[in-house]
Structures are given as structure tokens and as C-alpha cells.
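Structure, all two chains, one model.
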Amino acid sequence: METLKQCMQEVERIFAEEQFLAEPHELYEPIDYTLRLGGKRIRPSMLIAANALFGGDTATVRGAALGIETFHNFTLLHDDLMDRSPLRRGQPTVYTKWDENTAILSGDTMYALAWRYFLRQPSPRLHEILQCFNETAIEVCEGQQWDMNFEHMTLDEVSLDQYTAMIRQKTAVLLAGALKIGALYAGAPQAEIDKLYQFGIHLGIAFQLQDDLLDGYGDTAVFGKKTGQDIRDNKKSYLPLLALGKADPTQADTLRTLFAAKDNMDEEEKVRRVMDIYEQLKLKDDVEHSIDTEFHAAQIHLDSIAAADTRKQPLRDLMETLAGRKK
Amino acid sequence: METLKQCMQEVERIFAEEQFLAEPHELYEPIDYTLRLGGKRIRPSMLIAANALFGGDTATVRGAALGIETFHNFTLLHDDLMDRSPLRRGQPTVYTKWDENTAILSGDTMYALAWRYFLRQPSPRLHEILQCFNETAIEVCEGQQWDMNFEHMTLDEVSLDQYTAMIRQKTAVLLAGALKIGALYAGAPQAEIDKLYQFGIHLGIAFQLQDDLLDGYGDTAVFGKKTGQDIRDNKKSYLPLLALGKADPTQADTLRTLFAAKDNMDEEEKVRRVMDIYEQLKLKDDVEHSIDTEFHAAQIHLDSIAAADTRKQPLRDLMETLAGRKK
């Protein structure tokens, strides 16, 4: 595995060879649909890259690669239902294409299937691997709950630290967990695994902050969705939380009012007014600085790992790919 | 563990000593509520009884006992949401007391917590134990899907065999799985585990058939709910499916019509007419015969297990308790 692309191709092969359909088909068709929708399959690619970093044989992590992606897709399936998101990767979500009960039960079954994939692949460190997977799963659930809690809170009630803790749980721990699991299968030393985990955490936070930034400043043609959606949704993302801390009393009051606005407000006018304040505060520079800080921390952890430099290439590719999203 | 009562008391102790509350409390309060609602805790009691049957130390299965009950309660939580059941054990279900999203996410988290409990308890056969737990979970999901499929099917479209296969997956495999896991922790020989598993399957089917019978013929004061609910719900339970096979053409047509009836029909009149046909067919005798056959098969498997007879007492108590529900 010399490049990220090779890791991703391996993941595609693994998924292409796997059969997801079974009886009752009312249960498994939505599972097959979800797992065939594609996506970048970042987590299993990272797992394979981490395994190769410590000289592991990719054949020994096929189950774990399937397991981590199946779990991730299960969380998306249930999140889409909870968030009432009609589309995922440009296609109807399961609860809209089928119904709510199908989304609940197919999701539950995907979670069990993720375990089946993990249990398929023996390892002397299987207990540790399964514990890592499970504690990660619990953190992802907790992160989703904090995210839902924030929806009902005002801008003042959510601190920047709380927000960062939430995205750490909801996004970063699964990326870090995927890396850790790949390294555990390769029998990597604990100290190196810890560094790799921290690399994943910082990368995950950088990734999410970038997502927040792109919502405000992304190029719609590249980003693939309309900007300003977080503002329309009153979402307490990194941008308004950081802005509130920098704002003068008048700007702060305007932000509070706009982020508490109900549906009866003109949405485009709201986006424009929020973005105006962001501009006045030169917020973009600050957010980019935060992102760079996280990428830099990730870089330092990756550099410090005792492994051949050439073997780090897929993870360097990954960092560059993620960092390059803004372009 | 000399009696079922002792096993149940041990389970109560285990649950009393466990802390289910954590942060975010919006996530964990519904979990604590669900796990503190009580119930008979049959599955962990069976797990402990099976462990003791082969000379296991109860302290080694505390995690598994918590895990199996937490999993069972997770399935009830999601089933209640899918079935829109407002009450469970006489108390509001999670989706009514909180909301749908809370029911989805707290349920998902309970499933992850079940794994945490299982992973807490090491065993030389842990891999086999976890595989048993996971394959059981998948079967329970499949059984729930078949049950939901049957709702949209006519009486003629569901065969008695399909119905039995459904209750086997939805109810019996979890009872059998609990027994198997308890025995695996005790290091029981495979052949004995297989017999114990079959005991659990037959017991589980008997239990569910009895539930179906009680819906028609139970003593409301003892049964705790109004009889005839399956008939009001057009539920393709064992009773109408067996009745259809015995009915003459006129009775069969009446059953088909009544079990396809929409809400605009007088419900009590419908219950009375279905019960009249059951009486004409002497259906109760047949169902009791089926139940006895399952209990008898369970008994034979239990008798055949190579273990001291006194150690079988808790499982004999269980059979008697379940068999005695009709009284």
C-alpha cells in the first residue's frame, strides 16, 4: 500500500466481492442500497493504511475494513432519520425511499453486521480491537446526542470547548479508531498506536472545522452543496461560536438574534447579515488558522511515529486530500 | 444456584449494583429508565442457571448477564417505537415519555453498552461467546422483520411453518443464546451445549405459543391485559393460522374476512365471531397440545444433558413457571 489511492482501490475490491443481500429482503435491500451508495470510504482506507504502516498484511484486515464502514453507514442511516435529511450522496435516504421502521431496523441490523465482520477476522489482540471498536461506537452515540442537545440551546449556551468536544466524539474518534484498529491488527507497539490515534483525532477535528468553514465560504460548484445551510439551520457550528467571542456587543446581539430566528425570517437576508459580520470580524482567517493548527498537530504526530517514511505516504496523501478540500 | 429464584435474586443484585447514568444525561436517562423498569429478567437468570449447571462461578458471568438483558431491553425499546406501543410494563415507553429520536439513539447506545458488558468479562472462549451473541442479535432483527412483513400479508399468505420460524428467531433464539453463553463461560462440552440450546429453542417456542393462546383464552385478571388484542390487530398469530387449516370453507371465509377487516368494524363483535369459530374448531385443545409438545421436547433435551440432576433445578423451575402461566 504505497498510496492512499491503492488503499481506496483495495476497499473497493473488498466491497465489490461482498454479498449484502439476504432474506428477509425487506431488511437487507436497504442495507445493500446503503452500502452500495459509495462515498469516499475514508475510514476503511485509513484502517488499511494504518495496518500497512506497521507491515500488516491487508488480507488480515478485510473484515475490520468492512466492519468500520458498515458501522459508519449505520450511524449515517440513523442520523439521517433523526435529522430528517432526505438526501445522502445525492440519493434518497432509507427512511424516505422506504419508511421509518425500515430505517430503524435495517440500521440496527447493519450494526450487528459490523460486528459479524469484525468477529470474522481473528487476531491475538482481538479483545483490544473489539473494545476499541465498541468504545468508539459509544463515543459516536454520545457525540450525536450532544449535537442534538446543541440544537435546542442558544449561541451563548454552547462554548467553543463543548463544540470541539462534540465534534471530537462525533467525527474524530471514528477516524482515530479506524487507524488504531488497523495498527492493532499489524501488532504495532502501544506507543506508536497512541501517536497514530492522536494523528487521527487532530485530522478529524481539522476535517470537521473545514466542513464548517466550507459551509460559509465553500465554492458551491466544488463543495457540492449550497453555502450558508448551517446559518439557515441556526446550527451552533465553529463559525458563529468563534464569532461570538470576537464580536463587539452590537455584533454579538445581532448574531444572537439571527441564530435564534425562526422560520418566518427571510433566509437569504439572514445568511447575508451573518456573513457580513463574519467579514467584519475577518473570521475566515481565524478559522483557517484553527484548521492549520489541527493539521500541524496531526503532522507532528505522524512524523513522530517510528515507521519507515515511505510507509507513511498513504496517510500523508490523506492529509493533503483533506487539506486540499478548500481549493 | 439451587433454584430459579436464587438466579433471579442474583440478577437483581447485579442490576442494583450497576450504574447506568452518565453524560449526556439526555442519552443515559432513558437507558437508566428502561433498565430500571424491571421485568422478570428471564434471560440473564437463564444465563446464570446454565453457567451453574456446568459448575461455573456466577461472578464470571455478571457482565454477560448484564449484556444479554441490556440487549433484550434495547430490542424492546426499538420494537415499541416501531410498533407504536405506548406502554411497557405498565409505564410509558421511551418514545412517548421522551421522543422518537431519543428512542432511536438511546436504543443504539444500549446495544453498544451490551457489548461493553460482554467485553468486560474475559473467557478462553470469548470469541465463540461473542459470535453466539452477535448471530443471535442478527436473528432477532430478522425475526422482527418477518413479524412486520406478516402484518401486511393475508391469513392465507402466512404459513404455520413461516410463523413458527418467525417466533423461533424473534423469541426463542435469544433464550437459547442466553443458555449457550452461560454454558460457554462454564467451559461446558459442545455436545451438552447443543442439547441446552435445543432446550431453549423449544422452551422459547412454547412460551410464545402460550402467549398467543393467552391472548385468546387468558384470564384478564391474571394475564394483566385485555384478551382478544391479537384479533383486533388482525395479527397472524398461531391461533388463526392453525384455525384456517382446520376450518371448513365457510368458517375459513369468515376468518379471512375478519382478519382483513379495517378499523370500521365493531371490534368486540369481531373478537366474538373469531372466538366462536375457535370454539367450534376446539382450537384451544390443539394449541395446548402444540405447547405441550414443545415443553415435552424441551424436557427431553434437559433430561439428556450430562450434569448432576440437582443442578438442573433452576431450569426445571423455569419450565414449570412458564408452563404454569395459564393457571
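The mean pLDDT of chain A is 95.
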